[in-house]
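Try this one yourself first.
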């Protein structure tokens, strides 16, 4: 397979880079921990290099993964969780389907109508229109879905997204947040928004692999992750 992501000019082999990136986004380790793990395998790296690799390759792999994930259901569960960037809380918008499969995710500096609308536009662009979306009683998420339904009316569609504001029905996505939080906890706080966004994209892909969303039976998690790079 041709390379989908360029590793031209990299000082280390592609396999080493991908292994380091995968290990960081799949397991709860810090860059210092990963530096030591790589040294145990005979690869001398500093944590700054590891940080640069994750920032450069994780988001590119996530973009390719979006194109390859298996078809998801049209009944969605949507919620946001909190992630610290430069000591400030930011908001990770996430959506899964009724079976728990990841649909989409987006890191935002704000938690408001504009951010919610931007997330729904992104999720629809990558997954198609849902029939139903379950949310909590967040006013901004409700407003975001109202805007999406307005768009459907303006485009002449004869149906609207059903919106259900039931917190107990959203337990499935609140449970799903736990995997993301487990991995971000050792990272403590991200130094930049772009770094946080790239790392979280990689974490989401590793989570999707765990959930079997790529129909690559028999392949290890690392093999599936590396395949997105070509």
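Now uncover the answer:
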């Amino acid at each position: 397979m041709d390379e989908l992501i360029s590793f031209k000019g990299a000082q280390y082999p592609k396999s080493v880079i991908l292994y380091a990136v995968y290990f960081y986004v799949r397991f709860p380790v810090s860059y210092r921990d990963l530096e030591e793990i790589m040294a145990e395998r005979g690869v001398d790296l500093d944590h700054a290099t590891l940080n640069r690799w994750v920032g450069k390759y994780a988001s590119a792999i996530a973009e390719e993964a979006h194109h390859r994930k298996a078809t998801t259901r049209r009944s969605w569960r949507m919620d946001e969780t909190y992630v610290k960037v430069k000591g400030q809380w930011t908001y990770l918008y996430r959506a899964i389907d009724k079976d728990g499969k990841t649909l989409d995710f987006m890191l935002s500096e704000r938690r408001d109508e504009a951010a919610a609308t931007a997330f729904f536009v992104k999720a629809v662009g990558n997954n198609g229109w849902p029939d139903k979306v379950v949310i909590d009683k967040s006013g901004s998420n409700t407003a975001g879905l109202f805007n999406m339904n307005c768009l459907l009316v303006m485009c002449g569609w004869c149906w609207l997204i059903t919106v259900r504001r039931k917190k107990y029905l959203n337990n499935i996505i609140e449970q799903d947040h736990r995997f993301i939080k487990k991995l971000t906890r050792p990272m403590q706080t991200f130094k930049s928004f772009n770094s946080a966004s790239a790392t979280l994209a990689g974490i989401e892909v590793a989570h999707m692999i765990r959930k079997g969303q790529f129909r690559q039976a028999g392949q290890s998690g690392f093999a599936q992750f590396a395949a997105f790079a070509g």
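Discussion: Strands lie at 75-85, 88-97, 102-108, 132-135, 162-165. Helices lie at 14-26, 31-40, 47-68, 113-127, 139-154, 171-184, 193-210, 221-227.
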